[in-house]
């Protein structure tokens, strides 16, 4: 019982992180209909930037916890956002109008570039950040107990804020309206005076900032990371996006949480060695039986 | 000319989400005729076509294709969802499972119905002849071993396929372009090639989606002649969507008029020309107002 | 605007350059300029400024070049993507026809001239030719992006090792079995997946490749996990290539009265592999002129049109997927016997990416291109050992650049023309 509850708590925080990264996949897919293959690696880059930011702040003698957290968040989100913009500019924009296969291959190329470039500049070894926030709330249940670390609570809180802010931007602001219009019909949107190239760039930047938020949170929680972390988490976040219905924002968040919970339960109850196999199999199963996901609209084929 | 029907559409309904694109469409096409499906823009003509050819799975109704010596239900071969009763009837269950796994619009073509597309869909980076050879995929020797070992049977089958391809190239006047890439052809040539390609599948009925769109008057005239050849020399039934009223009235034996997803008139060209409902639909007359041509 | 049209606006180039420099500073600053060291960092300003300077100069020159008439011509030429395939005249005979038998002759002579080291490199090159050909059928001809191709490679390699350890089967029995097993796996994976949208296929196959690797790593009872397994050598009509043969067998060198040399086994593997590669090359060439090969290409061009012509798109894709997979399985068997040992770390996503890079560089669908690219991409890193770390970076850059400038690869595909005839219908 306590194992299940504990795993539910872990799964919820893991799932909200998946949801944050899935947003990047789902928004880019919604707007240009392609899988941004390098998105997982953007997350990986943000983990490195988080560590650099923390090291920089401590180098300048800053020790107050809120300042470090906010400094790191702002720095990481900004730099990762620029990464998102640059990646779109280099690997995707020149290929607008090319075949899907070309765009996908270019995206894979970008993913390899990011991984190898980080490996070459930072070394292949595992890196880490110091523990900034320790302690936990403990609930006794029967013979066992469930503990919720403050860090997990912070993850839930911060991802909630991030998702709420994004929902506000997309639903209420002019920028969001332009994004939605471009998603519906890029040609018409550009006729109406929307600079679709700019909107596509913006979507990449938004995706990157959400991945950066996830990167900061996970890095602070787990401590360790290397240049390969983006790969697995990228596929899982993509699974979350598909599970929720690709192209749908609430779907990405919902899909993330469902995936996080089911994966944590699987790891706790069945086998943690095979939890990645479980997630990948889940992806295949969803695509076979419900390719439009939970909240997505079924695709109507244009003949 | 026999008067049995080759295609029968009953109560066809098609919804996209909440939008009702087709509302109870009924018509019948007689074998060996040239028929036209006309109507104002947005009337649902292409939707009817896509349902007939199996690219959309109709929401309701029935489409029976009576070709190649058997009756085929177009909606069934696309694979329907399981019904409760199927779980007690293994034969029906297996049949439905078969169509669910292997069904699809290709079966409609194999049942004897070919089509062209409004926005031309050729294999642009393959040569003109290859386009026609692909269309004969179901008729040639597809054995992997025969092909790799270049057996006699394989060579003969390929030869026949080439003969057939060149025959149709002759009909559509593209023999000189046989070795060009399909994507390099002019617009009118591409339209003709698409018709030839559809004919290479040896259909009994061919559905042409706006074949004259974008053609100049002399090309349109050549097309009219070609359609007559299809009907008279190859005994092929032709169903077309067309906006060029001159051409439609010229070649059609039978016309179905569609408006707002419903059939508002059907009959011979002369009946249609004088039908007040049709005129109202095209000229957008108010309810009750008399319009004459 | 008029100024830009007539002459070169240096000011614009300078602004472009400074902006690019600023962006480069933000992008490279934290990663290249500050290297993590425990919880602290070491500053590497030299490296950083070198990169930023390169970006600035590069951007300045590019901006300058594209404002000039020559640059605009260049840009125009490359934006109007006219380069494509072309059809050969009927009865076309290449003037270079004699090159093929000559190459085959040289290829058969290689093991008797080359040193053992060169021979091992060439064997590796041929294994990648096989992998490249297999993936080229799937990606180049059928237009299906398979990112889990390494999974089939792993099935082949582990098939040999597992068959040897658990079933006592040798190289010769496992060679066809592995190809068939890989094809069956391809069918099981492909059948449900191939009716989906192309991009989903990429990610599902990627997941599949990872599943295979994770299972191989974690199922220690069967595969010994990360420790790997031994794979047997091929035998020559029952003669073994070991120094001392197992019971009841005679080693190859003793039978022929030669002194033992480990080069014999490589020579033998090489010759068998060469024959298999030649066979696959021939089959591939035939396939493109057969109904099934034409159907693959038609499917790549337009799936909807294919369905309207009566082709079952799922089964046609499946056949490409299975043939590609079985070629990957064959390559795996050779890889295992060549190394004498397999472990899961040989089958990571990087391997899939390398095979994809071979196909992309060589040209989608082009056989010659793939053969050349396979050798370039596998042999070059061997020769340039000091740049080995940059290999993956180079592949990545190569993929992006190729997709921007030459998405069809370096070697263009040609189509065979047919001579005109009367034509009739039966």
TrEMBL record, chain A:
GO molecular function terms attached to this record: L-isoleucine transmembrane transporter activity; L-leucine transmembrane transporter activity; L-phenylalanine transmembrane transporter activity; L-valine transmembrane transporter activity
Gene Ontology CC, one term: plasma membrane
Main localization category: membrane
Record's keyword terms, sorted: Amino-acid transport, Cell inner membrane, Cell membrane, Membrane, Transmembrane, Transmembrane helix, Transport
Topology versus the membrane: Multi-pass membrane protein
Compartment(s) where it occurs, according to its Swiss-Prot or TrEMBL record: Cell inner membrane
Lipid biosynthesis listed as a keyword: no
A biological-process GO annotation: L-isoleucine import across plasma membrane
Similarity section: Belongs to the binding-protein-dependent transport system permease family. LivHM subfamily.
Protein's UniProt name: Amino acid/amide ABC transporter membrane protein 1 (HAAT family)
Lineage: Bacteria, Pseudomonadati, Pseudomonadota, Gammaproteobacteria, Oceanospirillales
From TrEMBL, chain B:
Record has Transcription regulation as a keyword: no
Keyword terms, alphabetized: Amino-acid transport, ATP-binding, Nucleotide-binding, Transport
UniProt cross-references to CDD domains, sorted A to Z: ABC_Mj1267_LivG_branched
Pfam family, one: BCA_ABC_TP_C
Cytoplasm as UniProt keyword: no
Span of domain ABC transporter: 7-285
This protein's GO CC annotations: plasma membrane
An annotated GO BP: D-alanine transmembrane transport
UniProt xrefs under SMART domains: AAA (SM00382)
SUPFAM superfamilies according to UniProt: P-loop containing nucleoside triphosphate hydrolases
A molecular function GO annotation: ATP binding
Family: Belongs to the ABC transporter superfamily.
Protein name (database record): Amino acid/amide ABC transporter ATP-binding protein 1 (HAAT family)
Originating species: Marinomonas balearica
Biological classification of the source: Bacteria, Pseudomonadati, Pseudomonadota, Gammaproteobacteria, Oceanospirillales
UniProtKB/TrEMBL annotation, chain C:
InterPro entries tied to this protein: ABC_transp_permease, LivHM_N, LivM-like
Bilayer topology: Multi-pass membrane protein
Transmembrane segments: 18-36, 48-66, 98-131, 138-159, 171-193, 200-219, 263-283, 318-341, 353-380, 387-405
GO molecular function, one term: branched-chain amino acid transmembrane transporter activity
Localisation per UniProt entry: Cell inner membrane
Domain High-affinity branched-chain amino acid transport system permease LivHM N-terminal: residue ranges: 15-109
Record-level GO cellular component terms: plasma membrane
Keywords tagged on the record: Cell membrane, Membrane, Transmembrane, Transmembrane helix
Record protein name field: Amino acid/amide ABC transporter membrane protein 2 (HAAT family)
